[in-house]
Amino acid sequence: MSSSPASLFVVTRTKFLVVVSLIITWWFASILPHYQPAIKASFKARLGEAVQQLPSIKVDWPTPGHNPRDAYNASKLALLIEPRPLTHLVPHILHMMAVVPPDWRFLFIGTEESVAQVGRAYSTQYQQVIGKLDLMVLPEPWKIDTKELVWRTLTDSRFYDEFLPGVEWLLKYESDSIMCANSEKSLNDWLDWSWVGAPKTWDDRFFGSGGLSLRRMSIIRQVLEFQARYNDTDPEDKWFGTRVELLPGAKVPPDLMHALAVEDVYFEKPMGFHIRNGGSFLPVQVWLDPNRRQAIFDYCPELALIMDMRLKKEACPGDDSFGEVSPNGPNDTRLKMFAEAMAKAQADAANKTAHES
Ligand SMILES: *[C@@H]1O[C@H](CO)[C@@H](O)[C@H](O)[C@H]1NC(C)=O
Ligand SMILES: *[C@@H]1O[C@H](CO)[C@@H](O)[C@H](O)[C@H]1NC(C)=O
Ligand SMILES: *[C@@H]1O[C@H](CO)[C@@H](O)[C@H](O)[C@H]1NC(C)=O
Ligand SMILES: *[C@@H]1O[C@H](CO)[C@@H](O)[C@H](O)[C@H]1NC(C)=O
Q: Which atom of ligand 2 is nearest to the CA of 152?
């Protein structure tokens, strides 16, 4: 029995320590996450906004007191629409924010899953709080789960009226397009054009490919005023492209020097690249030549963020770096044929342009 007071004491001290440590923990917890609840509140409020809005109702951003969004130019918006919760979305969006001029705002439109993926990073929460970035799940009946549904959304004037009021310049990028920090140009250098993206062919006079493209909303609205896209037809960029090109008053760039991005046609030092589907269909005229490939990666190393890549040491023995395995090194005949075809395509394009003008 003599041990019982001692064991009682021990138990009491342990209990006491547990209580004290709990108190300390709670106290700590109460002073630490001041920042967190504020973010959650604004995040939820904005989601609530998007969820509650019906398409016929205009979205009004909350304005009481100081609005951090006022620090940016409300007419310039970079938009990413992505339904899949891809792991690279956060670094990708942060990189784009660093390369796009600082007066631009960013909007991410996703599903519950992809918005949660973007919104859970501390750095994107910070960007939301300072008014640089908004995350949005579109309310019913808007849907973005497939490409066709995204194209329907982007060719519906109500979408722009309700969710992008006041925007005049729209940079549309995708989860597989990126801007290069090494570019000597600024996105603001292209503000004069009605639409500028990536050329599809050498003699393309309208750089309509929209994976990384800058659009003037006044022109887009003009097109949507008198035209409607049929469901399950051309992609939105092609659809807009054929119409913007013919629209009186629309300004489209005169030559390759003014294209914004590389997709199917290579030119040096582009503002960015669009790699369709993470590189599962790389156009040979841009990517086949290993020296060109090296030059591209030296110029735009951030491509590694959006491309599926393998280490060189993982290559098969005898890989000729031109997409074939040949033990005797690169096939010179094939390379020569490729170089000749490229030269001819360029000469044809130059000839065509010369004859037209
Ligand atoms: C926003 O940017 C455009 C184009 O650079 C400029 O004309 C306009 O004055 C800017 N707006 C504000 C409020 O700074
Ligand atoms: C096109 O699809 C939308 C739904 O995305 C639907 O509301 C609309 O009626 C369809 N248009 C036609 C002409 O079928
Ligand atoms: C090189 O490529 C050409 C054209 O594709 C083919 O006819 C030839 O057999 C190839 N040579 C070798 C050694 O693989
Ligand atoms: C350029 O085009 C004209 C007319 O289409 C043709 O006669 C000429 O041979 C072409 N030149 C070259 C170098 O392809």
A: 5
